[in-house]
Write a structure and sequence with these properties.
Length: about 375
């Protein structure tokens, strides 16, 4: 008997209501099931609308990690409300925050105890100019990208990661204590090492498995955007490729004692972004870097879709800027095929947006802000 592939569950946001969120006092949007565009000058709040949609998936802002900064000036709270259609069922999400209180997230009137239980329920991918941090910032930003993709699908991974980071900071505190008091207790340190080894090894295995699946998808996306003109690569760097975490911790003990922190482990992992054989940060043009990041996020989209059996919502923030016509049209072709569900686009040029979405032959709506 041949097994048929599971049909992907449809999902889209029907309505979004904002109250005191960033620059919006009170605003409601009714959305098209396929394509929704926000056009207008810089500073009118196009990106803020996308951020509100992001908030309902991840219970935090993509652009501003300090939650209270998302409350409109001189106001005491914000509320974001979303009405979704998930597999033909109506679902309501409400995220609210009052100054001096904890953030609250409700699904169909029921309050979540832990926000981590919600992550992955409404899969979403955002492509934004601030993704450039993945190229220009340090390794922590790229690890956060890997962790974000895996965590949407794997609750255990998220738990292990939280535990690993907790043990890591406790081990570092212990190393500082040893140095300050000119003492050393091997047995005490071993307790932390054993836990670090257990969580760290599991995280490393999952990152490795994820990247083995992810890198070919990424390469395919980049080839489409660049019209097969450039070769790119994504390389996973980890100290655990060479040695077990147990060995690494043993060999680095003297160094760790001198420096008073843990110098080895999965918290040192990184991704090398390459064009040809060279780092894209130094040798890629702005257009190539942008194409690289878009390919990375479209690969994330495809991976999450395969794993969750649900088509993520796609947010494209100012995506056409700094790309030549041919790259733009390749992205449009990618978006046109039926792999995608609901898409939100922001742009400063309304004609450009209109031309782009007209080519899609899909129902669309343009909001002029």
């Amino acid at each position: 008997m041949q097994l048929l592939p599971r049909k992907n569950k449809g999902m889209y946001l029907e309505k979004l209501s904002l109250l005191n969120f960033k620059n919006f006092e009170s605003k409601t949007f009714d959305y098209e099931e396929k394509i929704n565009c926000f056009v207008g000058q810089n500073g009118v709040g196009k990106t803020n609308v996308l951020d509100a949609i992001y908030y309902l998936s991840f219970t935090k802002s993509y652009f501003n990690p300090v939650a209270v900064h998302n409350i409109k000036h001189n106001e005491s709270f914000f509320v974001i409300e979303g009405d979704y259609n998930i597999g033909g069922r109506s679902e309501k999400m409400i995220c609210s925050l009052k100054r001096g209180q904890k953030k609250v997230l409700k699904r169909n009137g029921k309050t979540y105890e832990k926000f981590s239980d919600h992550v992955g329920q409404i899969p979403l991918v955002i492509i934004s100019p601030s993704d450039r941090d993945l190229v220009v910032e340090g390794s922590e930003t790229r690890r956060r990208f890997i962790d974000g993709v895996i965590s949407q699908q794997d609750k255990q991974y998220l738990k292990d990661l939280i535990s690993y980071n907790k043990i890591l900071s406790q081990r570092n505190a212990l190393l500082k204590y040893f140095a300050a008091n000119r003492t050393f207790d091997a047995t005490n340190l071993e307790v932390y090492d054993e836990q670090m080894i257990s969580y760290g090894t599991s995280i490393y295995k999952k990152r490795k498995e994820f990247l083995e699946k992810f890198i070919p998808i990424f390469n395919k996306k980049y080839q489409i955007i660049s019209d097969n003109k450039e070769q790119v690569n994504l390389v996973y760097k980890s100290q655990l490729h060479i040695s077990s975490l147990k060995e690494l911790l043993k060999n680095s003990l003297e160094k760790d004692k001198i420096l008073q922190y843990t110098t080895v482990g999965i918290h040192k992992d990184d991704l090398n972004f390459e064009i040809g054989e060279y780092p894209i940060k130094k040798f890629g043009s702005q257009g190539q870097q942008k194409s690289y990041l878009i390919a990375l996020k479209l690969a994330q989209f495809e991976f999450i879709k395969q794993q969750s059996n649900m088509t993520p919502i796609l947010l494209l923030d100012d995506i056409f800027d700094k790309l030549d016509e041919s790259r733009v049209s390749h992205i449009i072709d990618l978006v046109n095929n039926d792999e995608f569900g609901q898409i939100f686009i922001t742009d400063t040029y309304s004609e450009r947006t209109e031309n782009v979405v007209k080519q899609s032959n899909k129902p669309y709506q343009i909001f002029k802000l």
